[in-house]
Input
Amino acid sequence: MSASVCPQPVAPVAAPATTTESAPLPVLGSDVTVPLVTGGEVTYAALDYAASAPALQRVWDDVAAYAPYYGSVHRGAGYLSQLSTDLFENSRRTVAEFLDCRDGDQVVFTRSTTDSLNLLAAALPADCQVFVFETEHHASLLPWQNARVTYLNAPRTPGDAVTTLERALADRDPYGPALVCVTGASNVTGELWPVKELAAAAHAHGARIVLDAAQLAPHHPVSVQELDVDWVAFSGHKLYAPFGSGVLAGRSDWLRAADPYLAGGGASRKVARRADGGVEVEWHTTAARHEAGSPNVIGVYAIAAACRALTEAGFDGLVAREQALVARVRAGLAEVPEVKVLSLFGDDAPRVGVISFVVEGWNSSHFAAALSAEYGIGVRDGLFCAHPLVRTLLGSDPQDPGECGAPEAEPGERSLNAIRVSFGAGTPDEHLDRFIGAVRELVTDGARWTYRTEDGRCVPDPGTAPAAATAPTG
Output
């Protein structure tokens, strides 16, 4: 490829192409086959989008086209460095348009949602109080260790969430700066949270709000202005761009006033020796202040490419198709009496393509292992890095044993964890039909193989013959 046909900087986000139900978007790895422990191979059904979504084929193609032209940004006079710098900064503008940011908002590129929220935690003004529901993913629950934190109990309705927050903010003492951190869509139940109403409550009580959009942005359009949130955080690897970058976007004042998240090149405008022998540093006041070091240009470009691809595909159509898939899966699971779907706000709550459940008489890790080994279906089991929420939904005591991703009982016995199926814009109908059929078959007939616990995981036992097709007992 010659320089004359080098990929151009990411263009502004285009208008949606359609408002009708979409077909699945092409994703990388859709034709990968995996072996079955019972013999043969099958096309892999990737149903763990909530953990990490496959790369959109469009994103992969854009990254592959750019990769030969990679250069270090902001640092070189050469053509490739200049091209990469333009691409990097244009990607920032693309993300700002994707999120419908306000004039003056900053888009800071990070490693992930976790990194973004830790960055914001480091930028809190003195004496800032943080309010967070116990239902949050650990990325939103844990970064505030150096602040005064109020953990709010799990609400059972969206209205209860707003009322609980209003009461907590009004009663805070002293009545100083405050930050609310809330998810847009639960990584456990998929339920949508009343973000706009929570933002209004926060602002009415002199607080700011940051939206964890890790599970929302891949499924729904996110408008900073419409939701009236102060910051948004999300990860590329959940937005079909798994190349190691994330985003924190929003108001610039706290970010400008804070010390750089990392100290080093790129964050500094000027460094000089002082007369006393030390160094004096003038830091950037732009997003670069918190982007020290050589940035992940390819990861940033991948996020921008995903933003553009999703917008051009049309969120209306993508949402319509996903809602049809959600209804299909929930209806299929409802036909199996032994399956209990976990929900915070109830069956009628709007949600994205994330569904967690338990199966009566089954260790959740055993069930997930059988889905993988016998049907080629990849789901997630555990507490999903949202331990307090899953414990609440399972009705367990906070001290009951349980660990994210690890079985706490032998196969066939109850364990304190759950199974999560998650899907999105790239999921074929067949994968979900296979999943529903596999759940029904496992519950009715039992696993066809024997399993054991190895290094904290439930795995097929290679040294035994296939198990008799009988359902396990609790």
Remarks:
- Confidence is low (pLDDT under 50) at residues 1-6, 8-12, 14-18, 469-474.
- Residues 79-98 form the longest helix (20 residues).
